[in-house]
């Protein structure tokens, strides 16, 4: 009997990229089809949840673009991640939650390209905190933890720009919000080591908690 294993796709980042790109292509094709004048408009009417097909497809495209940007980042393809992020941010209907995620990915991609000054623009707290709240509500995530991750990202950008006072301030805010966050503690340890406080850094590593 012939083996069927060759017909089963291997789960991988390239396969994920292919799936997200197919989702974008198919949703666009459906949108173009339904936008043509026709007598039967049943496909355009809202479903039981009150959401029209067009709105559903638009949201699907946003989700595909967010995940595609993340996949490109994971594949160490920052240029493609930036291109994808720009496409999503250009959509007038981009939700605050998706805007928060894709701006974070955009900033990370810029940092990978040694463009930290540009990255800081996408992580401005005045803009991102409200977007972070929207993301936390939609993802049912802890708001403090989401805010802490934002401060960690800003601290990372500050370190890349050799702005240690700003990095220290951002890390302190992150630790106050999420004192057990691994990302917050790792950056705190890094800054303590940079300042020569090796004993405090070692104690945090051992106990996985903040030492004042």
Automatic annotation (TrEMBL):
<protein>
    <recommendedName>
        <fullName>CCR4-NOT transcription complex subunit 10</fullName>
    </recommendedName>
</protein>
<dbReference type="GO" id="GO:0030014">
    <property type="term" value="C:CCR4-NOT complex"/>
</dbReference>
<dbReference type="GO" id="GO:0017148">
    <property type="term" value="P:negative regulation of translation"/>
</dbReference>
<comment type="similarity">
    <text>Belongs to the CNOT10 family.</text>
</comment>
<dbReference type="InterPro" id="IPR039740">
    <property type="entry name" value="CNOT10"/>
</dbReference>
<dbReference type="InterPro" id="IPR011990">
    <property type="entry name" value="TPR-like_helical_dom_sf"/>
</dbReference>
<dbReference type="GO" id="GO:0006402">
    <property type="term" value="P:mRNA catabolic process"/>
</dbReference>
């Amino acid at each position: 009997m012939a083996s069927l294993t060759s017909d089963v796709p291997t789960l991988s980042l390239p396969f994920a990229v292919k799936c997200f790109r197919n989702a974008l292509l198919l949703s666009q094709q459906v949108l173009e089809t339904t936008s043509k004048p026709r007598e039967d408009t049943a496909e355009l009417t809202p479903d039981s949840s009150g959401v029209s097909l067009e709105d559903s497809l638009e949201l699907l495209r946003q989700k595909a673009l967010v995940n595609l940007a993340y996949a490109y980042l994971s594949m160490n393809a920052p240029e493609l991640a930036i291109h994808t992020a720009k496409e999503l941010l250009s959509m007038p209907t981009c939700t605050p939650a998706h805007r928060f995620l894709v701006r974070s990915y955009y900033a990370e991609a810029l940092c990978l390209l040694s463009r930290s000054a540009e990255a800081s623009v996408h992580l401005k707290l005045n803009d991102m905190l409200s977007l972070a709240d929207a993301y936390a509500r939609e993802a049912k995530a802890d708001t403090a933890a989401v805010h802490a991750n934002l401060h960690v990202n800003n601290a990372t950008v500050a370190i890349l720009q050799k702005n240690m006072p700003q990095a220290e301030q951002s890390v302190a805010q992150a630790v106050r919000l999420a004192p057990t966050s691994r990302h917050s503690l790792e950056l705190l340890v890094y800054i303590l080591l940079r300042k020569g406080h090796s004993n405090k850094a070692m104690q945090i590593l051992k106990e996985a908690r903040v030492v004042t």
